[in-house]
Amino acid sequence: MTKVDARDLQTNETDDRGRIYLGTEYANKRVTVAVVEVESDQPDENELAAAYREASESAEELVDEWDEASDEAWGGLNK
Question: Cα dihedral angle (25, 36, 47, 16), rounded to 10 degrees?
Fold first, then answer.
């Protein structure tokens, strides 16, 4: 097994097709790459569900507040 010095590890971002740019210093050379860890920049389903629930609750609170304010406004116009 090849020993790798932690200082030699690089973190790079892939493009939308999963490709990575290594740099010109690797041009015309054979390169072996190991994927050590993959992080998703997309929220997982539980995080999305929680965000939607929170947004829905906030929207319901706004509707209730608007109903009260609207009733007060219409009441003031009818005087």
Answer: 40
- DSSP string covering 9-73, please? -------TTS-----GGGTTS-----------SSPPHHHHHHHHHHHHHHHHHHHHHHHHHHHHH
pTM: 0.36
End-to-end CA distance of the chain: 86
**Per-residue pLDDT tens over the stretch 56-74:** 989 888 888 888 777 777 7
- In the chain, where are the structural domains located? 6-77
